[in-house]
Design brief:
Chain lengths: ~350, ~325
């Protein structure tokens, strides 16, 4: 028998404090950096006083950068948390909003709406107030998929079946989207492709006032289910024998998941790899399986990763920006590969 | 420690599961089993007879078709899952593989039904967990990751988890599968101590019949011809154990108290000798399919001595230094 080493881990409060400092630094950096680099003093004035402010800076900060930074925080937190919940409930390290087809459901809603009615809509649908109905159809799409997953999970209690269904559903959706793209006009097509690349910057203050409560509600539901999430780690049999009511618990967790992932997809486009990668990063740095630590940890770490991705995507000092989806993929995928190779723990969550 | 006064009764119970097509498949019918406090019960039966299904049904994981499960006179159907979690704990065959989970954390799962909404352990919960770890002999393993301990140790940790749940009844689905022989005995012994000293009702399924016959208080026997319950000795005397196997070649030898494999005999052999050399020479010849006879008319004679074996066959005599050499020679010549 090989001698096993007891856990050597840093105390969680220390890690949380360090991450907290990193979070504040990145949040400030995200506001300062961009195509125009704004002095820190101006940011302070814009946020906390009305006088002696450069109006241009003020507009950039209040109307663009501040909402965008908030959106980045919420996006990172929401996608990471929904990924964590799915990985735990499905006991599969590769589960996430992408794999179960929830992002695909949202995409289908958007595709049907934008491309299906492209003859009657203006190309500005993604950037103007027309983004509102867009958000609603994406929302409806992801909820629909979640309901489908729920329905199947009640019929067949087999988790692998549900995952395979998610993959099939994603494929079916991309087939339908391809057909729609084929028949749609050029400007709508471009608008749709831009949406699929994801964007944090198009979220207006009015949209933020819907985004924020929806994300908070999702986070709240996740906190209520921390104990059950821990039980799910041992598998359904053990969870049940500990007194967890599997069905109702699953419904609440799925609700939280689709609220988090669906909302973000609706407003920011399908953003990948954060949902899968961040929970794994947190398991490695916190060395724990306890959701009492993991839930706040993925919220904080997800925000940090997303703020960092946003800073990178803005290419500070340059006039162009990169699609956020490409940045998260380029950050997330190496992390996943690194973990597969280095730890081999990735192969199983439970 | 709560006092255990939970009597378990299965009355005319019929269990099974829904098939993918929607047709229910009944696999065990008209079961009448019971268990009283402090009893260690082993459910035995051939593969596929429905042992796991029965245990899962008893633990409240799945509905049953007809009949009743009574827990101290109350129908299991009328007991909420939260309350069931304080009456019965369950150890399944599933291997728990959670990275970063320590033995202490695993055992602490047992406190789940007692902790607050966020699962915070009180000082009392912690001492119950420590006590459970001590009871299964895993002190010093608290901080080890469950992924890095042996199968035997993990099974002990799972039993500790059930102990920490502090339930009067513990149900275990094949707790000794995948374990080596000494671990099998140790786990059975541990469970027996828990039944005797802590007055737990322990219900387990097993294929380790020889160990079960020596260690348990009661057998629940599921066979194709019917279901029986009683002390292991009753099962032997009534001949129930012979019904366990559909296959005619396996039977239970009531004299030896062991299962045996029936073979076609190759030749008749008479063995002379005494003590251990005699016993084990008989076993070896029996294993190889020779019929042991007492009379003079035999195909050959073996004289088993302390360190040598003499083979006398049709007047020829040959001596061997080990049982292995004797058998090898017999295989070659016959």
């Amino acid at each position: 028998m090989k001698e096993s080493v007891p856990h050597k881990k840093l105390p969680a409060p220390l890690i949380f404090s360090l991450l907290g400092i990193l979070f504040v630094l990145l949040f400030v950096a995200d506001i300062l950096l961009g195509s125009i680099i704004i002095p820190a003093k101006e940011v302070f004035h814009s946020l906390f006083s009305t006088s002696e402010t450069n109006e241009t800076y003020r507009t950039i900060i209040l109307s663009f950068r501040f909402p965008k930074a908030l959106t980045a925080i919420m996006t990172g937190a929401a996608l990471s948390l929904s990924g964590l919940q799915m990985q735990t409930v499905f006991r599969n390290p590769l589960a996430g909003p992408y794999v179960l087809g929830i992002s695909a459901g949202a995409s289908l809603g958007v595709a049907l709406f934008v491309l299906g009615f492209s003859s009657v809509l203006a190309a500005g649908v993604f950037t103007t107030t027309g983004a509102w109905p867009l958000a609603l159809v994406a929302w409806a799409g992801s909820f629909l998929v979640m309901l489908l997953v729920l329905f199947v999970s009640m019929k067949v209690n087999d988790i692998m079946t549900i995952l395979i269904l998610g993959i099939l559903f994603t494929s079916a959706v991309s087939a339908i989207v391809s057909i729609l793209q084929y028949f749609s006009n050029e400007s709508m097509l471009k608008a749709f492709i831009v949406w699929t690349m994801g964007s944090l910057g198009n979220v207006t203050k009015a949209q933020l006032s819907v985004l924020a409560p929806a994300i908070l509600a999702g986070i709240l539901l996740a906190f209520l289910k921390i104990k059950d999430l821990n039980a799910f780690l041992l598998g359904e049999n053990y969870a049940r024998s500990l007194g967890v009511s599997i069905k109702s618990s699953r419904i609440i967790i799925f609700l939280s998941t689709s609220l988090l992932a669906g909302t973000i997809t609706a407003f920011c486009g399908p953003i990948g790899f954060i949902g899968i990668a961040v929970p794994h990063i947190c398991r490695v740095i916190f060395k724990t399986a306890n959701h009492l630590i993991l839930v706040p940890a993925v919220i904080l770490t997800g925000s940090i990763v997303m703020l960092f991705s946003d800073i990178v995507s803005q290419l500070p000092g340059m006039q162009t920006t990169l699609p956020i989806n490409s940045v998260t993929a380029l950050i997330g995928i190496p992390v996943i590969i690194w973990m597969i190779v280095k730890n081999k723990k990735f192969v199983s969550v439970s | 420690m709560k006092e255990n006064n939970f009597n378990i009764e299965l009355q005319q119970l019929s269990v099974g599961y829904e098939q993918p097509g929607g047709n229910p498949l009944e696999i065990l019918k008209a079961i009448n089993f019971s268990a009283t406090p402090g009893e260690m019960v082993a459910l035995i039966g051939s593969n596929g007879i429905g042992k796991s299904t029965l245990l899962r049904t008893l633990a409240g994981f799945q509905p049953w078709f007809s009949g009743n499960i009574q827990i101290s006179g109350r129908n299991l159907k009328n007991i909420s899952s939260k309350e069931v979690a304080r009456i019965m704990s369950f150890v399944s065959t599933e291997n728990v593989r959670v990275p970063n989970l320590s033995v202490f954390d695993l055992v602490a799962y047992g406190r789940f039904p007692y902790t607050n909404w966020i699962g915070m352990l009180s000082e009392q919960d912690k001492s119950v967990v420590d006590e459970a770890i001590k009871n299964v002999g895993l002190q010093g393993f608290e901080n080890r990751p469950v992924m890095q301990i042996s199968d035997g140790e993990r099974q002990r940790a799972m039993i500790a988890r059930a102990l920490a749940q502090d339930t009067p009844v513990i149900i275990l689905d094949e707790p000794t599968a995948y374990l080596d022989v000494s671990n099998k005995y140790e786990i059975f012994h541990l469970l027996q101590v828990l039944a005797n000293e802590k007055k737990k009702t322990i219900i387990l399924s097993t294929h380790d019949l020889n160990i079960a016959l020596r260690e348990v208080d009661k057998l629940w026997i599921a066979t194709d011809c019917g279901n029986y319950q009683g002390a292991p000795e009753d099962a032997v005397l009534q001949g129930w154990l012979n019904q366990l196997f559909k296959n005619d070649h396996v039977g239970f030898d009531a004299d030896e108290g062991e299962f045996f494999f029936k073979k076609e005999f190759k030749a008749k052999v008479k063995v002379e000798g005494e003590g251990l050399p005699l016993t084990w020479t008989l076993r070896a010849l029996n294993r190889k399919g020779y019929q042991i006879v007492m009379q003079a008319e035999c195909d050959f004679l073996v004289k088993a001595k302390e360190n040598s074996w003499e083979l006398i066959s049709e007047g020829n005599q040959k001596t061997f230094g080990s049982v292995y050499q004797l058998l090898a020679f017999l295989e070659k010549t016959s």
